[in-house]
Amino acid sequence: MSGSGFAIRDNALMKETPTSTTPAAWHVLGGGAMGCLWACSLATAGHPARLLLRQPPACATDSDITLSPRPTDGLHKQSLQIPVRIEGAGDATPITRLLACTKAPDLLPALADLAPRVVDGAAVVLLQNGMGFHAEAAALLPRARIFCALTTEGAYLQSRLSVRHAGSGETLLGAFPGGADGGAAQLAAELGCGFLPVRPVENILPSLWAKLAINCAINPLTALHGCTNGELLERPGLRSEFDALCTEISGLLAGLGHPLLASAVAADAVRVARATAANRSSMLQDLEAGRRTEIRYITGFLCQNAKAAGLPCPRNDALFRAVRQREHGGQP
Ligand code: PAF
To answer: What is the average pLDDT score of the chain?
Structure first.
């Protein structure tokens, strides 16, 4: 995991290798709800979409994703079969556009496997919860243009390769490590050509920090207490723990040079917990399913930055250690 000091890297200096495919094919990495949803959005807009799976079907081939869209997606059907090509890491097709939708802990090993197929100047969009993996991803793909994306779209898998678009949201896209546009506007237009809108931003880092702070407030507490996001606000014991955690996160953000985010974090975390009151957070779902959680890239990243700046973070530190312990089968 790296710190918050990002190396100088300029997407604009990286030339894209011309390819014959028009429009450029998108490879979407990960067969979870987000991967399937984005593959469908691109395919319905006529973009060749390829879904990269760790374990593709025995003979990798064209397949269908079943999509249950929202009425606002403009597809006028309750359910559609969307043809996509399924590929495994062993396939040889060159990658010019990659949308990585894996969980954060799975990202770097997957990118390492794909690196030989990523052409010079390829656009690689990282759509993970958390922070701290962007610089490592860029180091694995030194000749690619790296972008970060954040989404508030909601989706869940109904079964393998069957996805329901459960909530309409917005996706922000910016170049890594921020600053100049670096091609974000053009790429946002390409990626947003389907039913999922994408908005380019000049500097995505403040949005990444804002999302990180909300995830730090909601995810570990819901995971450890086995409760919905809304219960954090309603159960008195939990509410005081949540409020105290928000106060610590706010102090850390202020100490790390994000005063505006610091002043907004408590209200933002309450707003998101209320808007997603019935949801079981992604971290709770991961713990329950025995999967590794994203704690290292959420609370772990905040604690690492706090410690580097000499800021005490006892509540976040305790939550980090407790979630790690649960991941390893221990009890709190
Ligand atoms: O990780 C999650 O589950 C979500 O980002 C959030 C905002 C906590 C809502 O459940």
So the answer is: 91
